[in-house]
Amino acid sequence: MPIAALLALIIAAFPTPQGASAHTRLISSTPEVGVTLNTWPTQVKLEFDQALVDIGQEKSNFVVVNNSLGDQVSQDDEVINENVISVSLTPNEVKGPVLVFYRVVSADGHPVEGEFAFNFSEEQSAEVDSINQEPTTDFPLTIYIASAAFIASGIFFAIYSYRRRNLG
Q1: 100 burial class (0-12, 13-18, 19+ CB within 10 angstroms)?
Q2: pLDDT reported for residue 110
Q3: Which among 33, 48, 87, 153 could bridge 116 via Cys, Cβ 3.0 to 4.6 Å?
């Protein structure tokens, strides 16, 4: 029974991965995702389903807005109020799709990044629809699966080596 005790000790030493808690997600924005505006907005406001927090002294929450030429039109003055982050925009005359990129840290401590687009012109742009996506998460499930497979193979190798050495 020493092998069973050794195996139990090894398994107990590695905690099993817990299911990922729900990270914050974007629930609304002003301007709205995919909308076409005829008038340039003065700010972009994003609302999330969890409160946002600042971590450390570095800027952990930010919003960057680029016009269709790739020029940054957002200022560096983000304001966080509970679950809403807003940023002021500089004047812009360039028509076309406008990309909004954000990175926020929610109350659960996990950073979430995402992007969406709206259009600044008289016509709806097909480019805006292709740019809009769901936010990306920060830690994919495949890492948990690969880690579990690596640990399991190490355990089986240890048992195989022990048996081969001691049982001859």
Answers
A1: buried
A2: 86
A3: 33
DSSP codes joined into one string, the chain: -HHHHHHHHHHHHSPPPPPPPPPP-EEEEESPTT-EESS--SEEEEEESS-B---SSS---EEEEE-TTS-B-B-S--EEETTEEEEEB------EEEEEEEEEEBTTS-EEEEEEEEEESSS--HHHHHH--PPBPSS-HHHHHHHHHHHHHHHHHHHHHHHHHHH-
The rounded Cα 161 to chain-centroid distance in angstroms is: 42
**pLDDT above 70: residue 28:** yes
pTM score > 0.90 for this model? no
CA distance 62 to 60: 7
CA distance 56 to 158: 42
Measured CA to CA, the distance from residue 6 to residue 29 in angstroms comes to 55
**Contacts of residue 32, Cβ cutoff 8 Å, sequence gap at least 6:** 118
Beta bridge partners of 89: 74
Give me the mean pLDDT over the 155-160 stretch. 82
Are 54 and 23 contacting, i.e. CB atoms less than 8 angstroms apart? no
How far is it, in rounded angstroms, from Cα 120 to Cα 55?
34
Query: Mean pLDDT for the chain?
Result: 80
